Amino acid sequence: MPSLFPALTDSPADGPADRPALRFGERSLTYAQLAGAAGALTGRIGGATRVAVWATPTMETAVAVVAALLAGVPAVPLNPKSGEKELGHILSDSAPELVLTAPDDLLPAPLRELTRVDVDVQATGPVPESRAADEDPALVVYTSGTTGPPKGAVISRRALASTLDALADAWQWTGDDVLVHGLPLFHVHGLVLGVLGPLRRGGSVRHLGRFTTQGVARELNGGATMLFGVPTMYHRIAEAVTSDPDLVKALTGARLLVSGSAALPVHDHGRIATATGRRVIERYGMTETLMNTSVRADGEARPGTVGVPLPGVELRLVEEDGAEVTSYDGETVGEIQVRGPNLFTEYLNRPDATAAAFTADGWFRTGDMAVRDPDGYVRIVGRKATDLIKSGGYKIGAGEIENALLEHPGVREAAVTGEPDADLGERIVAWIVPADPQSPPTLEELADHVAQRLAPHKRPRVVHHLDALPRNDMGKIMKRSLAHG
């Protein structure tokens, strides 16, 4: 197949050899230096059937993954915050022969049985000629299993290339773009979109190491053109933007602000747009599918939606009985199913789970519930398992109620779940972090607020006040913890 990274593998006359490729803090590599470092590492890992990467937010992680892809060796990114039991499961399931890591990293016990290869970002060596095929595995990314141990989604080289090229089309992404982000590098968002994306285009990425609004302002004001983040990051930006003129200037001058991994509350959309005149655009993907939809750079950034299907991606909504939703009315809820070259190949060692994830005609069941507007825009209303509430004969998505609650001045954070109710089937439960803990909004106040904005049947029947909502490392609210807490 053609190279995943033409700027690294083409001759220097054809590629941006002296252009910055990666920057982590004060450390940076040009394309020529990255090619040398990755090329040297391929010589040490070539022939392995699979390698693990201790995926800290560092230059070494980026070089390790690039080297594995150049060598045609599937990489398994490991979350450095994983517990030993989870790490043990991933290692026994994926059976890597080596672990690639930064020289100073202290690895936990489960990894000490593996042969360790320290990544030297100053090394130089030739980039091997790729013999990998389109369908060969590129990555094995473990999903954060809500039930049972994590499953390893095998992602092919074709899937990587097709998703990144579709995003380039949607976002008008070129080699002139400079991306800034502070995302973890063991997930699709930070690693595939945030590192491999710029490198495939011949552009550059500046990783903040740790996300701060000051870092975002510094990099965007210093020539970066794009920002990737998750809703918790944009929430912090929305809080800071009213009092930080440097941040206002930075966001106003950015070419593209992209949020993903969870829904960005409409309230935060509004605060950023009011302060800067710029709209954050959202996209929708998951480990197994990479990217499915996005608001386009030349399209309308409509808060609360994730845009339209990307080039090459087929998307449909399906009712509980399996019938396809044919009415794009912005109201009819169905499960998102997708088909296209962006899909994963299989769950490693889990043919049962792989078969269950697909329909007979090849559509992947995402488990996400959505409605679709007449012009094709998709609005996700929640996960089938945790966010679809069946109350009083209605199917209600938790997301729109959360957005309504966040518009109340007394609400800082909000989550909505359903719990069994003898009369309604399920009743709507709101979990609130109040803006003022000494004077939290009452149930009656919040119920009236929601009923006026949405409909009476969508009002919460129970309210719990919390100091904070439980979130995972990507900022997603862990609703099972709420329901069982």
Write the layout of secondary structure elements.
Layout: H1 6-9, E1 20-24, E2 27-30, H2 31-45, E3 51-54, H3 59-71, E4 75-78, H4 84-94, E5 98-101, E6 115-118, E7 137-142, E8 152-156, H5 157-171, E9 178-181, H6 188-201, E10 204-207, H7 213-221, E11 226-229, H8 231-240, H9 245-253, E12 256-259, H10 266-276, E13 281-286, E14 290-294, E15 308-309, E16 314-318, E17 334-339, E18 346-347, H11 351-357, E19 364-372, E20 378-383, E21 388-391, E22 394-397, H12 398-406, E23 411-421, E24 425-434, H13 443-453, E25 462-465, H14 479-484
Parallel strand pairs: 1-10, 3-4, 3-5, 5-6, 9-10, 9-11, 11-12, 12-13, 24-25
Antiparallel strand pairs: 1-2, 7-8, 8-18, 13-14, 14-15, 16-17, 17-19, 19-20, 21-22, 23-24
Helix pairs in contact: 2-3, 5-6, 7-9, 8-10
